[in-house]
Every structure is written in structure tokens, then in C-alpha cells.
């Protein structure tokens, strides 16, 4: 690994049921911290915000595929998703769901090149986000002046310096094609974080709120497993706000089936 070896705050998740392949992948990814997951359930246990890349074995995902993608991106929206496909198939089959694909049999060169590139993207996005967050916190602190603020300015400035050094080096390593790939990934991840789940549980009709937004038809009362939550938020007695279109819906009482929109 070249452009990423100076950063030790990030790691790569490997979902692989073959211990032989797992050890081989770890050996090939020299200098990169890895975390193991032998089953999809292990991901829910070991995943944390330090994971910048998740290499997911297609043969293990099965019915948990969509749930795992949403779980990962809800906890780190910048984590790059690499699918290790069961066979050689056109990337177009997976490009709407993954940032990159590697077809079995996996070669050392392809794994190293793909992980290094995606690790660079994941780290750059996370560091850039933290950089802007730290700057905003410092600006707020400076505006507060002598007011009592429970924030250590020296600690913020020190962390900002720690973030700036690798961020500057990564910025120099990113070219035009990398920028396009990064934007594609960000749009893909935003889609998973803001669109309704494709497979949702059947729910009974609620007498307390509509089953869907009258304006955009987003289902309400089910867990979308992303920023949409259950589709709505209650802002008053029989008044709900849609989490997608922000439309406000009014109801009169549980027995009144007519819904008035504003």
C-alpha cells in the first residue's frame, strides 16, 4: 500500500467464511488494519466508525444484503463497499449497490489495487468531513468569546492539525477520475440513506396516522433502516411531518379517516 500507509486510524472489514482466504487477504493487505467477520451477524458486532472499506463476500450476504449495506452506511456514510462476487459477472449488475466489485478467483494485484483506491476514498471523505466539523466548532468557540463554553480550544486545534496532515497528502493524490468516482460513491450512499427500503415488513393499518405520506407516498409506520426512520415524525396532536418531503399532514381524531394537508 502506498498513499494510505501513513494513516493508522482506519481499517478494512473482511466478510469471508473461508479461513484460508481470510488469512491470504490479510497477508496481501500489508500495512492495513483489518477486522474479521465470518458471518453477516459478525458485522453487527465488529463494525465501528474506523472502518473505511468493507469487503463483502457475495456468497454470505444472501437475504441480509440490503440490511447490511444500510447498517454499514448508517454508521459510516463514507465507508466504501466492495463486493467480492461469486463469479465473473458484468459490473453493471452491482454498480447500483456497491462502490467496486472483485470477481472470484481474487488475485493479489486486484485486491490490493481496489482496496488501496477505496481506502483512500473512504479516508479522504471521513477526514474532510471531520476537518469542516472541527473548523465550525472552532469558529463557534471564537464567536462565543469569554462565554462559558465546555470545549477545550487547544484540543480542537491539535486535532485539526492531526487531520490536516493526512488530508493534505490525500488531496494531492486524488486526480480528476478519483473525484468523479468519489462523487458517484457519495450519491450512491446518499440514496441508501434517504430512500425507502425496498423490502419492508407488512404492517397493520394505524388509526393514529396515515399509512403513507399523502404528498410523496412514502410508507409510514415501518422501519426504513436509514435517515427516514419510520417515515414521519409527530410534531403535535394528530399532526405529522414527512421525513422525505417535509410535507405536514393534519388529522382530526382517530375516528376521522379524512386527512387534511397543508
Describe the structure.
This protein folds into two domains: 1-194, Rossmann fold (3-Layer(aba) Sandwich), CATH 3.40.50; 200-262, no CATH class. It has seven helices and nine strands; from the N terminus they run βαβαβααββαααββββ. It has helices at residues 19-28, 40-46, 58-61, 65-75, 108-144, 153-173, 176-194; strands spanning 11-15, 33-37, 51-57, 80-85, 100-103, 232-236, 239-242, 248-251, 259-261. The strands form two sheets. The chain has a five-stranded parallel sheet with strand order 2-1-3-4-5. A hairpin with a 7-residue loop joins β8 (248-251) and β9 (259-261). Mean pLDDT is 84; it is low at 199-204 and 254-262.
Question: What attributes characterize this protein structure?
Answer:
262 residues; alpha/beta; Rossmann fold; 4-stranded antiparallel sheet; 16% strand; disordered C terminus; Halobacterial output domain-containing protein; HalOD2; CheY-like_superfamily
Poorly predicted spans? 199-204, 254-262
**What percent of residues are in strands?**
15-25%
Named CATH architecture of the largest domain: 3-Layer(aba) Sandwich
Query: What is the CATH superfamily classification of the largest domain?
Result: Response regulator
Got a strand count?
A: 9
- Element order: H for helix, E for strand: EHEHEHHEEHHHEEEE
On the 0-100 scale, what is the average pLDDT? 84
Which bin fits the share of residues in helices? 40-55%
What structural class do you assign from the helix and strand content?
A: alpha/beta
Strand order of the largest sheet: 2-1-3-4-5
Query: What is the number of helical segments per DSSP (H or I, 4+ residues)?
Result: 7
